[in-house]
Design a protein that fits this description.
The structure is a homodimer of 155-residue chains. Chain A is of the alpha+beta class. Chain A has a domain of 94 residues: Pnp Oxidase, Chain A (Roll), CATH 2.30.110.10. Chain A has 4 helices and 7 strands, in the order αβαβββαββαβ. A 6-stranded antiparallel β-barrel of chain A has the order 2-3-4-7-6-5. In chain A, a hairpin with a 4-residue loop joins strand 5 and strand 6. The first copy, chain A, is globular and about 45 Å long. Chains A and B meet through helix 1, strand 2, strand 3, strand 5 and strand 6 of A and helix 1, strand 1, strand 2, strand 4 and strand 5 of B. Chains A, B: InterPro entries: Pyridox_Oxase-rel, Split_barrel_FMN-bd. Chains A, B: This is Nitroimidazol reductase NimA, pyridoxamine 5'-phosphate oxidase superfamily. Chains A, B: It holds the Pfam family Pyridox_ox_2.
């Protein structure tokens, strides 16, 4: 929680308590995985489910799987209404690990039971478990989001 | 475009051409800025507009502004329908620069005209210009997203 002060700089009064962050995470199905790869903080939309506080992601082989395994990653979920210019966002920081046969049967079963989507027939996804160690959330207040009518902005 | 092959590993047939990516970027108002800070690829939802191919972001002081200035950043925009399990996502890689009085009046005017939201009364946002040097997009195909009914998944 060493960076709590930094987070507060942005929105001191709109912070969401940690347990409410986890409740909000359970309300959505699509989030965005952040991984450092190719010299950039890459962002990938992914399906996910929850195994208690662990985020379970199903993904295809490639950049994000390679970069996420045993690395510092983030996971962002939000629900923002551009008409009413309000909503929330939750950012999880943690470590990700691919689930393989080396894991215990119970953990594999819990991972598969986490509510992530089945893929199209013939697809064989990989499973990632993202163990959070820092979770922050904030309410998006009206005025921070784009106007419903006026497409222009001036300082 | 040196990492085009890596991108293709994930979705060979669902790539979106670059000009279509820019068209899609102009259809949305909220995206997610990725910045490397505090040892993580942090992800922040932000308002944005477009000045031709430059992404204009208005933000408050804090972590993301400090980390984004003159750094490798990403910007992700998507539109994903969890019911129909389809949509698209675009990922921009580029460099960000804060717009200050040191910039020419024409550039400042174009930045302010880019269609980003005004903030709540009394707020004074900062402006970032994100200059893309690599843009990729892909269609999300049915089967990659969570099921509308069945909440469970098995390999």
């Amino acid at each position: 929680m060493t960076d709590a002060d930094t987070q507060r700089t942005d929105a001191p009064s709109n912070e969401i308590p940690v347990e409410e962050c986890y409740r909000l995470l359970r309300t959505q199905q699509v989030g965005r995985l952040g991984v450092n790869a190719e010299h950039y903080p890459l962002i990938f939309p992914v399906n996910y489910g929850m195994d208690h506080h662990t985020i379970v992601i199903r993904t295809s082989p490639g950049t994000k799987l390679t970069a996420a395994s045993h690395a510092n990653v983030t996971f962002e979920v939000d629900e923002i209404d551009p008409i009413h210019r309000s909503g929330w966002s939750v950012l999880v920081r943690g470590l990700a690990e691919e689930v393989t046969d080396a894991h215990g049967a119970d953990l594999v079963r819990r991972t598969h039971d986490a509510g992530v989507a089945p893929w199209a027939p013939g697809e064989h996804g990989h499973w990632l478990r993202l163990i959070p160690h820092h979770v922050t959330g904030r309410r998006v207040v009206p005025g921070e989001l784009p106007p419903a009518v006026d497409p222009r902005a001036y300082l």
